[in-house]
Amino acid sequence: QVQLVESGGGLVQAGGSLRLSCKASESIYFSLYLMGWYRQAPGKQRELVATISAGGADKNYADSVKGRFTISRDNNKKTVYLDMNSLKPEDTAVYYCHLRRGPNDYWGQGTQVTVSS
Q1: In whole angstroms, what is the distance from residue 44 CA to residue 113 CA?
Q2: Which neighbouring-strand residues pair with 101?
Q3: b/e sequence 94-105, b meaning 16+ C-beta within 10 Å
Q4: Exposed/middle/buried for 43, CB within 10 Å: 0-12, 13-18, 19+?
Q5: Would you give per-residue pLDDT tens digits along the chain (117 residues)?
Q6: How far apart are the C-alpha atoms of 13 and 31, rounded to whole Å?
C-alpha cells in the first residue's frame, strides 16, 4: 500500500514563500514514478500544479504558477517538494501530492495553504 504524507502548509502573507514536502512510504520504489502536486480551492475542481519525472529531469507547471513555483525530488529520501514563492491569495487551496502506479492513483491527505492579502 502506498502512503503519501504532505507537510509544510500554513498561513502566509501575499508575496511570501512556503515549501511543501511529500514523503512516500518506504515500501515503494519511489524513483520509478512520476510525481505531481495538485491543489483544490473551495468550490473548485482539483487542478494540476506541477509534475516531475521519475529521475527529476523533466518538470511541468500550470501556467498560473510558472516562474513562482519549483518542483523537485530527492529519491533517496522518497520525498517530493514544492517551493512556492511570490504567493498570491489565489494560491489558497489544499495541496495534494499524487503518484500513479499502474491503474491506481494515490493521494496524500492534503496540506492547507492560505495566502492573506
Answers
A1: 15
A2: 104
A3: bbbbbbeeeeee
A4: exposed
A5: 889 999 999 999 999 999 999 999 877 889 999 999 999 999 999 999 999 999 999 999 999 999 999 999 999 999 999 999 999 999 999 999 999 888 999 999 999 999 999
A6: 34
